[in-house]
């Protein structure tokens, strides 16, 4: 549903555009201010359609050419800056890759544990102004991502196998708190559930 302003602005805008952007006018026309001046097509005796009229150079085209000439040196300078930025990005990527390789292969355990602790502290700093639960969640995520950086295969193994174990012990704690007995079918699969 159009508003009242749109109902009035669309016809006014269309009329304004039609008056600003005139249709092509030939040079022989007696109009005072034509929008774009074309050469008058020549009449052909054979009855063939006349060729397309060629437009003369307008002020807009001259302005665009002038802008291109002024921006050419700036573009050359920007190319040197972009090359410098690419080199710095590639060098930073190489330094990060070398550091990760060092952490995974040659670093002593103290450095690896310090990296995991720094990841946990960084995660807790992200949740600094939030509650205790979010601080713990962000700290756990930070420590987990840092441990994946240092020990990728071990972290993937423990995440894959740790989720069912955590689910099992959460259900055990829930059953203990509510006093329910575990389901035999779920207990054989390694997961306990409550019976109502």
From the structure above, extract its key features.
single chain, 196 residues, mainly alpha, two-stranded parallel sheet, 6 helices, 68% helix, 2% strand
What's the tally of helices? 6
Spatial strand arrangement across the major sheet: 1-2
- Provide mean pLDDT, rounded: 75
Strand portion, in percent? under 5%
Residues in helices, as a percent range:
55-70%
Strand count, sense and closure of the main sheet?
Answer: 2 strands, parallel
End-to-end separation: 55 Å
Low-pLDDT runs of 5+ residues are 192-196
Q: What's the overall geometry?
A: elongated
Order of helices and strands: HEEHHHHH
Secondary structure category: mainly alpha
How would you describe what is shown here?
With 196 residues, the chain is mostly helical. 68% of the residues lie in helices and 2% in strands. The protein has 6 helices and 2 strands; from the N terminus they run αββααααα. It has a two-stranded parallel sheet with strand order 1-2. Helix 4 (132-150) packs antiparallel against helix 5. The longest helix has 47 residues, at 59-105. It is elongated and about 100 Å long.
């Amino acid at each position: 549903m159009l508003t009242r302003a749109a109902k009035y602005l669309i016809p006014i805008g269309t009329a304004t555009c039609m008056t600003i952007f005139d249709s092509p006018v030939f040079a022989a026309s007696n109009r005072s201010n034509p929008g774009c001046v074309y050469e008058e097509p020549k009449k052909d005796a054979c009855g063939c359609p006349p060729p397309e009229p060629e437009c003369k150079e307008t002020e807009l085209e001259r302005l665009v050419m002038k802008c291109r000439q002024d921006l050419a040196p700036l573009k050359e300078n920007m190319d040197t800056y972009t090359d410098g930025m690419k080199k710095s990005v590639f060098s930073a990527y190489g330094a990060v890759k070398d550091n990760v390789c060092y952490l995974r292969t040659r670093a002593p355990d103290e450095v690896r544990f310090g990296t995991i602790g720094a990841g946990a502290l960084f995660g807790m700093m992200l949740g600094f102004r939030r509650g205790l639960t979010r601080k713990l969640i962000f700290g756990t995520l930070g420590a987990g991502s840092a441990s994946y950086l240092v020990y990728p295969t071990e972290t993937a193994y423990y995440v894959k196998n740790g989720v069912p174990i955590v689910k099992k012990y959460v259900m055990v704690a829930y059953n203990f708190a509510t006093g329910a007995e575990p389901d035999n079918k779920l207990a054989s699969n390694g997961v306990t559930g409550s019976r109502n």
